[in-house]
Model the fold of this input.
Amino acid sequence: MKLRYTETALAEIDKIITSIEKDNVTAAAHVSAAIQAAMRRLSEFPLLAIETDVPGVRVLPVLPYRYVIFYNTCDDAIVVRNVRHTSRLRRFGAVAPDRHLESL
Done:
């Protein structure tokens, strides 16, 4: 299934990789590869992850790292909504993606 990304998700991925690159280019490459591998799994198995408390939105961990991908499926694509570090979820008490994202 085709992957689409919200602008928010693309910005979050860029921020994650850029932030890690400042300290360790190799680590950034590993995290980037893990995110890409998770995205490939999603394209093959769209219902792979568990649902969140937001109807239709699923969350997939990016192993072995502490990042998660929030996404939903539509007729012809998987829409990646957010990519977050799990510490951000606890700090803000958020276990769901941004609810205010633009409709796709």
User: Anything to note?
Assistant: The chain has one domain: 2-91.
